Every structure is written in C-alpha cells, then in structure tokens.
Amino acid sequence: MQINQALPIHCAYCFDILLASLQKKDVPKPTFQEFDVPVFVTFHTNKEDLRGCIGTFSPGPLSQQLAKYTYLSAFKDSRFPPIQMKELDSLDVGVSLLVNFQKGKKWNQWEVGKHGIIIDFQEGGREYGATFLPEVAAEQEWDVNTTLEHLIAKAGYRKNYQNVLDKIDLTTYETSKAKLTYAEYLELKK
Q1: Are 127 and 32 spatial neighbours (Cβ–Cβ below 8 Å)?
Q2: Got the DSSP string for 47-93?
Q3: 60-61/36-37 β-pairing
Q4: What is the pTM of this model?
Q5: What gap in Å lies between CA 15 and CA 189, rounded to an integer?
C-alpha cells in the first residue's frame, strides 16, 4: 500500500464522523495508518449533486484532518444547509489527499485533468492568488489558457489575464481520491 493514497477506509471514517455528529456519540478510533497530508472532504447526493466540500492545503495527521473537514463539509459549508439523518441513503463521500506538490512552474507547465494548480502573482502593488483542484478544468472542459483566465479572475484580477501570465508563480499538485456511498459504508460495517 502506498502511503499517500486515499482508500475506502478513509471514506468510511468520514461516515463514522458524520454519524457520530448526527447521533451525538463519540467518534470511533481510526483503524488506518496515520500520516500528515492536506485533505479535502466532499459530499454528494444522488452520486452527482454537490452537498458540501471543504478542505485544507496544510498537512496534518490524517485522522484529525478527516474529522475536522468531514464536520466542516457536512455542517458548515455556507453554500448548503447542514446534512440531516434523512439524507444519509442518498449520500456519498469523497476523500481527496493532495500530493506531489511541485513549486516554481511556469503558467503553462501543467496538464488538464492531472494537476491542480495554485497561482500567485503581483501586479500594481497587489498580491493575487487562487487555486483549482485537478478535476475543475477537466469537468468544465477548459484548456490550459481558459483555465488560467478563470483562475486569474478567481484571484480577483479583472484586467486582461494575458498581461500577468509571465508573472505567475505556479505550483502543481495531484490528488489521490477515494469515494464511498452510504450503502457501501453499511456493507463495510457488517
């Protein structure tokens, strides 16, 4: 087993956290190997509709990261009301471990569908920065240029994006992902 690999057992632990929170019970101890890693936890309903997604780029112990970001994603994502017990049957949870960070890349030294990107640049005495996870550009069917145009706008820069391309300090990263439906979770718990 590769150490920085997302596994179904990580997703199962997210459901453990969710259930413990909903039922106001203690969280069970994790049964997986610990390592420090940045994490995103994502909930969907009906296998496609986003229901919550929060994470961090700061590495920390995996079980603590999963506990914190499961809770935040399920109950504190400001785009959605808190998850309720009645939704469990339609839920799936995804765990994304952020791995293979590579700093110091040029704006076009990355691959759509493989890399997440973080951009930082300065213009007019102001600092700008933003990120897209690896799946964003592929899901939107954007090429490298279109992705940078959207990401530069996300960072808050409103002028012609081509003016700052050569000023961008780009970091690439990849995700190791696992996903589990609530039904699969119940099968694992038998």
Answers
A1: no
A2: TTEEEEEEE-SS-EEHHHHHHHHHHHHHHT-TTSPPP-GGGGGGEEE
A3: antiparallel
A4: 0.83
A5: 11
Alpha carbon distance, N-terminus to C-terminus of the chain: 24
CA distance 1 to 7: 10
Q: Which residue has the tokens 């296998």?
A: 47
Structural tokens at position 40: 């995103």
Encoded tokens for 142: 């954007």
- Break the chain down into helix, strand, coil percent, rounded to 5: 35, 30, 30
Residues of the chain below pLDDT 70: 1-3
Q: Tell me the two tokens of residue 96.
A: 């994304």
Question: At 1, which amino acid appears?
Answer: M
Which residues, listed in sequence order, are joined to residue 179 by a DSSP beta bridge?
94
